[in-house]
């Protein structure tokens, strides 16, 4: 089982969620406003110096192969980014337990 955590500029959130829906991702949570110091692109602290914010999407997978497919698709999604500010930053790790019932 895996968790995928990703952050993106709020301007990319809707296309990213549509992308996940097209992959039949069954469960995700969205945190609308996340301030962030980014590896690439501009920092987003929602201040006059660093305007704007990111959003976060958290997904849980009981099927490791589905998680791998989603991570690969995020790389492809990033390949279509107009600039570094549109990149999705994603990481995954092993999930010890998952209860949905």
What does this structure look like?
The chain is 29% helix and 29% strand. The chain has 101 residues and is of the alpha+beta class. It has a single domain, classed as Alpha-Beta Plaits (2-Layer Sandwich). Strands 2-3-1-4 form a four-stranded antiparallel sheet. It is globular. 22% of the residues are buried.
What is the strand and helix layout of this fold?
Blueprint: E1 2-9, H1 10-22, E2 28-34, E3 54-61, H2 64-79, E4 89-94
Antiparallel strand pairs: 1-3, 1-4, 2-3
What is the gist of this entry?
With 101 residues, this protein is of the alpha+beta class.
Features:
Alpha-Beta Plaits, four-stranded antiparallel β-sheet, alpha+beta, globular, 101 residues
Total number of strands: 4
Give the neighbour order of strands across the main sheet. Answer: 2-3-1-4
Integer count of domains? 1
Helix content: 25-40%
Structural class: alpha+beta
Rough shape? globular
What can be said about the biggest beta sheet? 4 strands, antiparallel
CATH names the topology as: Alpha-Beta Plaits
Total of helices: 2
Rg, Cα atoms, Å? 14 Å
């Amino acid at each position: 089982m895996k968790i995928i955590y990703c952050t993106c500029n709020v301007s990319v959130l809707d296309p990213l969620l549509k992308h996940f829906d097209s992959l039949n991702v069954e469960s995700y949570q969205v945190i609308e406003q996340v301030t962030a110091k980014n590896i690439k692109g501009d920092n987003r602290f929602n201040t006059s110096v660093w305007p704007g914010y990111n959003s976060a999407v958290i997904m849980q997978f009981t099927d490791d192969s589905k998680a791998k497919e989603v991570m690969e698709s995020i790389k492809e999604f990033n390949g279509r980014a107009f600039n570094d500010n549109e990149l999705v930053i994603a990481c995954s790790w092993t999930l010890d337990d998952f209860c949905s019932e």
